[in-house]
Input
Amino acid sequence: MQIHSPEFKQRAGDALDNANLQRALGNLRDGFPQKRAAAVARMPEFEQLRNEGRDLKNHILANLDFYLEQFEDNVIKQGGQVHWARDGEEARRAILEICRNAGAKTVTKGKSMVSEEINLNDYLEANGVKPVETDLGEYILQLREDHPSHIIAPAIHLNLDDVSDIFHKKHNRPRSEDPAELMQEAREMLRKQFVAADVGITGANFCVAETGSTIIVTNEGNGDLTQTLPRVHVVITTIEKVVPTLEDMTLFLRLLARSATGQEFTVYNTLSSGPRRPEDQDGPEEFHVVLLDNGRSEMIGSEFQEMLRCIRCSACMNHCPVYGAIGGHAYGWVYPGPMGSVLTPKLIGVDKAGHLPNASTFCGKCESVCPVKIPLPKLMRHWREREFERHLSPKGFRFGLGTWAWFARRPGLYRWVSRSSSWFLKRLGGKQGRIRSLPLGKGWTAWRDMPAPQGSTFMDQWKRHQQTQQQKNKG
Amino acid sequence: MTSSRNQILGNIRRGLQRDLLTGDALDQVRTRLREHPANTVPARSQLPQDQQIALFESMANEAAAELIELKTLEALPGTVAEFCRENGIDQLVSASDPALTALDWSGIDNLEITHRVAQAGDSASLTTSFCGIAETGTLMLLSGPHSPTTLNFLPDTHLVLLKQSQIVGAYEEAWARLRQHSDAMPRTVNMITGPSRSADIEQKLQMGAHGPKRLIILLLRD
Amino acid sequence: MTASSTTPPTAKVGFFVTCLVDMFRPSVGFASIKLLELAGCEVEVPETQTCCGQPAYNSGDRNSTRAIAESVIDAFDGFEYVVGPSGSCIGMLHQYPDLFEPDNPYFERARSLAGRAYEITSFLTDVVGLGTLQARFEGLVTYHDSCAGLRELGVKTQPRQLLSQVDGVELAEMNEAETCCGFGGTFCIKYPDISNRMVSNKTANAQATGAAVLLGGDLGCLLNMAGKLKREGSTMEVRHVVELLANMTDQPAIGESAADLAYNAGGH
Ligand code: SF4
Output
């Protein structure tokens, strides 16, 4: 996926003006948060599970090398192969090689954000292998040459009309406006692809060290067809997804379904361990796991380590009022919302993604719903600190902030500034009690009035009040 | 790739400011793998067996699975045949599980029954299951010589036999049974909770995305 | 207005005014002090206080934040409690320990300050217990939960509990009362159009309740919401909750025509 994060402001503005998108985002704001709340209310232990989830992830990260090696050993024991990839380039090459060895013309794909992260589809296509997305949302996007705007509901920015249009155009069938019919149409189209594919590529929600298994969590069943029907199954995943045991995986599955869609459990939770056994009648003959790092190992021991706890549930973006206002594409890359605002600067550079950690009110809603209690606002603040240290924040802003901070440490002068500003704004407000246009505060007054101050400052009034009291007491 | 592997692991160790795990630290993580302790198990499923069955039924229903009660195993062929007749199904792909093949199917004349992997276009499949998990009304199915995984996903309707005695409370109990059942993992472990669905079009839930449109649980009293 | 206070006498409180109250709405300061005094506290307003440092903190300027934190710590030395009419600024005081290395003498002092610092409604409910209020306000009100107060300090039931003691007040909860209003300090200046969408959602939710007054506990949010409502031509009034609690609603609401406040501390 191309990087558009530097154009955040522009893209956010466009998103705010896009009526269709705004309607779609309305669906999101009404849907996910309420479903999650209902599911959490049914699980009295939920808070405890969150604490355990956080602690367990911390334990895993503290022993990540060990668990990764265990995972690798156990994949190999079952006849699978593990490919370590430092970056996207290595991962892409490894996957292409597997495809070439399999003589693959078509690969089917389950939904994988890691695949988006490494731009896998474009690469395969350029090298003569046709990738076919099978998740309904991803399939729609692929037809539209569009990209996901959400990590679990990739096509959330589209409306029914958009889907009707593109299916009509690409499927050569009468245009339908019935979601059930449209889904049936996609089902029929993709059936052929599932059966024709030589390689199936899926992501993994977790990798179990104890058994060398990977697990995918889906509602559609597309991931299962993707990994069962072709001769070769490739899992593309990242190093922080490893968990020690099946029991540990279970803890995260309980958290994941409820945090993501508000379901009690996702429809299909599927563990894959190695290739098909000799006596099996179906299943892939080869099983490959591509373990991608792409900068994650450098986060260990840094102030961003906690971000590696993320289980990609999307609760943070579902509850984020900024995401809810502008949608995922404004963030300009693969990972949107609060988790993206922390992760993206790490993966593509804070010089490109500098807006992301700034475009937050630090309202804290994301942290309050995160199933592994990642302190997202704190981590965004760390990026702002890095930007400030590296002088990446705008000059005018730095100057203003510096001046203000200088005054804030000098109470006498600060009083004087407050007094003058208060006086000035009060005058501007006139009889109305509010200001409609403020030369230095256009950002504010373009959209709302600026309430005028009541009059003199509290500190001045308090002083006068104290003096009257003293005189009264004397008199 | 070896060098990538070493570099990634090296980075991790550098970040953790240590070398390879040794001594107590190593023992501790090894013990965790060996003993695989449970985390908090929600109280909801910790019930006497009869209530666990009731919980399984209500959770499975909630997930839009359909339940048909079987009084005896012998009643299965007839029940399946009747279901298929009512739903206009005339072909059934069945798992070759002895529990199914040993039954008397001779009287069934409205169904063409085959034993093979599933293919695109199959309308219904019949399989057994490894266990049922009451906590969320979830079925666990294992791949194996007599239970190809495609049967769980390709046909439009998936019929699954589950015995009440196979119902456990929480997922952890299912893992315990799985460990008892065999030392090695099967290629595929499917946990299935209701039929396939998607809400990818306008956040409106539609049933029957890529997997089965209907999931029928034949629940045997035993 | 009178109140029957049941607390042991004279908790010594240093009042943290906050920049916005100082500049925009002194009446909130006076209302808070009135309530604190009714609760039997001895209130002082340290003269050397300025700002909590949040603008610097949230802009990534740790050095300035630390310097400002030091002066706040100095200013409020020796007070049993520090109380302010803002969850956001008090929440900031709670962050101070993070700014200092443990061997810095300010570290322990920052921890001590954090342990003594309270948002006004939670102080009046959880710490001193304000007995029965005798305030009156006729009308339907709705309440916006400001983010920092809600999520950093757990302020949710306290203002509602206090409001329930005001005669005549009826509370109608709005949808998404806990969703951010889009103020966010410098956020609303840096990303004004996003902020605008957020505050528009908020004012729509507030107005849908049919309430005449929108209340909250943080002046930043209140200025933002009042500014939006006024621009939309709404007649909905916006006030800080302490104004109702202290029976000081004779002042024009936020963004309506202002007059200097004549502080009347009599009556108790
Ligand atoms: S940061 Fe937390 S809430 Fe957001 S996707 Fe990751 S786990 Fe979920």
